[in-house]
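Morning F.,

Quick status update on the modeling queue. The single chain you submitted on Monday has been processed. Sequence for confirmation:
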Amino acid sequence: MRQLVIIAVHVLISLAFAAISGVAAHKILVTSLSTARAEMLQSYIRVRADREQTLFDEARTLTEAAESAFLRRLTLIEGEDIVDEFDTLFPPFGDGTRRSHPDLFDGRSLPGADYVFGIGAYMGDGEQMTIEARRRYMAGFHVVRAFGEAHLGEFSSLYYFTPDRRVVIFAPDREDRLAFYRYEAPADFNLQADEDPRLFSLETNPDSVMQCTPLSRFVYTDGGERSATACRKPIRVEGELMGAFGTSIDMTDHLASSMESPPAGGVNLVFDRDGNVIARGQTVQQARLFGIDPVEIMTLLRDDPRPRGVVGTPGSEFIVAFSRISGPDWYFVSVSHLAEIKQTANRWGWRLFWFIFVVSLVFTSIRGLLRRSHLVRAFLEPPSRTPAARRYTAAPARPGGDDETLPPTGENPSIERSRPQGDA
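Structure tokens below.
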């Protein structure tokens, strides 16, 4: 019975030690692997987000350069000198509007051996335009044709427009040849988009920075779906609105490439400023099976003031790397699931548990067997020391060789022997 109790105690001690080691290993692995995954995501999101931001940075550079060129040309154009040229390039359409001359899209030579093409224009109430308005549109026209052609390989269009329903567009590759603006748009057509009040308002855009419209989707004649956004920068001179330059960016291929090559065990997403998913690397059904909740992710992003970073979900099921894309105010997000990390930590935690448990039992068993061996016990357990024998000093022998018992202390043997035997 005593042996069984000893064995049970050893088993429990081995079990407890192995369990503590396995749990500790699991925690250490989860922490270290999660940290490594977060660092990897940090590097990944930095590279991918810079790539996404580059396109809008180039659009910002284009619109800012167009603004500077517009202001330079505006100071050089005299109103009276451009009346005839303006009427030639933008003749009355007959319904109160002015439209671009057909040759401006097909191709036309200008004075000074210059050449213009790919231009379409619509000017609501164009027949009532003042000289100042004509000056501005001539300046915008020359900037649009020159800068649009120079950046044709990067951007498919460049346009100058104002909130009063007037626009000049350079877009030579448009399949519709800008026919809507050149011929089809009604006289009361409203050019303003839903985003224009926010774009032009001093309250919502006091610094007149470039802003982009929400992503729009449309279907081309070939049946393929396309998506695009328009980035626009208002122009102000001493608080007076002069119009805005803008460019439309086809985002179809760009967003598709953004979803490619997600991190291990993850998926890429793009959110707009309102928290809507505008691009995802998987279908909605796959995302639900994966456990991704866009609302939860956007809640985390809105509460984080950083331009980019890595955060964990409250349930610690995902690591979310994000980067804000200025211009359209989008979020490029890369979500990585921690299930793989937890599975790896569980596997190695159990392996360590069983290894330590078995090794501890084997070691205890071998130790018990060795202690039962007399030969081994002689080496393991040194013999105990016996108490040293008490040493006594022998009394000197009496003359005569007889050993007599010593009298009690205090008695004198000589007196005892001198007494007469008859005395009482």
